[in-house]
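Below is one protein, fold included:
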Amino acid sequence: MVYTPQKHPKAAFVTISIIVFFGVIGSWITRLVTNLTGLDGGLYKLFPLVAFFYWIQYTIILAYLQFMHKSKHGSRSFTDIMLNPILRFFIFLLLSFWGIYHVFLGQILISYIILIGWWGFSLNFYLYYKNKNWK
């Protein structure tokens, strides 16, 4: 199933929040249960991997839609710079692949930090569009 990012910033932020929550908390709970039961604990890596693959899909589709609509953004602030589809595409893909790499290395904490960073970017964009629509 291909996911198309919502046009409403709040809906997109809520969706990203759910995915990040799923990736981090789902992994923690699975790891805790497998450690308590003594079973193989490799299943916990699946949660952040699904979140990262969702992030990659989201980034590719959002960049494509912005290219098709020829979105133009100024460069007055950090958020304006990050709204540039080309720059955001490469930065977000680099970060998501870096997170996947750390999942496979077993350094899951770095993957959590990267997912939470994506959530932070989403919060920043949501607040940016919320303030922009209020003016």
